[in-house]
Design brief:
Elements lengths: L9 H11 L7 H5 L1 H13 L11 H5 L3 H4 L4 H13 L15 H14 L4 E3 L12 E3 L1 H4 L8 H15 L2 H16 L4 E4 L6 E4 L3 H17 L3 E8 L3 E5 L1 H6 L13 E5 L6 E8 L7 H13 L7 E7 L5 H6 L8 E4 L6 E3 L14
Parallel strand pairs: 8-9, 9-10
Antiparallel strand pairs: 1-2, 3-4, 5-6, 5-7, 7-8, 10-11
Helix pairs in contact: 1-3
């Protein structure tokens, strides 16, 4: 091989990956962690780039060493690229990873990470059982690690790669996550679906999720949604509608430790109550919370089959979801603002189906 891409250090690769793959990318950790930086570095090092007829295998990653990485001449890179695969090359220094790192490199970093987001191409002419190298960087992705590319030119190149290579869903998630971060310093205005009224909430991720529930979730999954109760951290009541609640048989008492939101769907013959917990870091609908709320609705003689529970998150990749998913109550729902057309149903076969809202 005569033409290698410009040499880039692993440190440069590690610095740029989180910028190329911002919050909101599915399986982002697989694309930005140390192993991802090592993998992309190794692909650049051995010249595994689209159109070069050179490919990377996990062996190129886990047998790389600091000493080898410092050998930057094309002849030295080519000797490593070909010799390691044939077992005919003695690599100087201590390996970056053990041989048993083959699976996470192949399955997580490559297949579930870089290949899935459109940054890496995989050969389709090899049997799945073949041990031959099969991965190459997409040309537009490889260019992002040219050390000569920086400043505005780098920003433009990254934006172009994201626009042309990432899926529509990934771009939507990134957009939502970025807009949320940008709004954290300002108040969050919420527009109610039933009346068009607006309310101002304090800045912060919880308020942004609450707004998404009211403005995005409710119109998608409810026929005729109304907001009965909306609060924020510190037990501050943003909005409540006692008259409408009383009309459908519910007495709202602020001292009953109510959830962040109570919505009602007036579309069905029998109204549906939806109790919503908003999770930025903690506070999901657990079995205990569900039971406490059911005591309240039982007291109001509200049929349990018309009472639903939802935990709302910003994104599946956030710490709040990872922290609370194991405590979500059976028979409840989970929804993510970054993927608004989808919903998780934790179905309890011993109870009535938890989702009876149109969608």
């Amino acid at each position: 091989m005569s033409d290698f891409p410009p040499y880039a250090t692993k440190a440069l690769v590690a610095e740029r990956l989180p910028i190329i793959f911002p919050n909101g990318i599915e399986n982002r950790i697989y694309c930005t962690r140390d192993m991802a930086a090592s993998t992309v570095f190794a692909m650049i090092y051995v010249g595994a780039v689209e159109g070069a007829n050179q490919y990377l295998g996990p062996v190129h990653v886990y047998r790389m060493t600091d000493e080898q990485a410092d050998l930057t001449a094309d002849a030295e890179r080519e000797a490593y690229a070909n010799g390691v695969v044939r077992g005919q090359y003695v690599v100087p220094g201590a390996r970056w990873y053990a041989d048993n790192s083959r699976e996470p490199i192949r399955d997580e970093t490559l297949r579930e990470g870089l290949v899935a987001v459109g940054a890496v191409l995989a050969r389709t002419d090899l049997p799945t059982t073949s041990g031959k190298p099969r991965y190459a960087l997409k040309g537009s992705f490889a260019k992002l690690f040219n050390p000569a590319l920086d400043g505005q030119d780098l920003e433009d190149a990254i934006a172009d790669f994201q626009r042309t290579s990432l899926s529509r869903g990934a771009l939507a998630r990134v957009s939502i996550m970025l807009s949320g971060a940008a709004a954290n310093g300002n108040g969050v205005q919420v527009t109610f679906p039933n009346s068009g009224e607006t309310r101002q909430m304090a800045p912060g991720p919880s308020s942004l999720i609450s707004r998404a529930v009211v403005e995005v979730f409710a119109p998608r999954f409810m026929a005729d949604p109304v907001v009965l109760w909306l609060s924020e951290s510190g037990n501050k009541v943003v909005a409540r509608d006692d008259k409408l609640a009383a009309r459908i048989g519910l007495k709202i008492e602020a001292d009953k430790n109510l959830p962040d939101l109570i919505l009602a769907d007036l579309g069905p013959a029998e109204p549906i109550l939806l109790f919503v917990e908003v999770v930025a870091t903690d506070g999901a609908v657990t079995a205990r919370r569900k039971s406490a709320i059911l005591e309240m609705t039982d007291a109001a003689r509200f049929d349990r089959k018309h009472v639903k529970f939802l935990t709302a998150y910003q994104d599946r990749g956030t710490g709040g979801f990872k922290k609370t998913v194991q405590s979500l109550a059976w028979g409840s729902l989970a929804w993510f603002a970054s993927e608004p057309d989808h919903i998780i149903v934790l179905h309890d076969v011993l109870a009535a189906p938890p989702l009876a809202m149109p969608g």
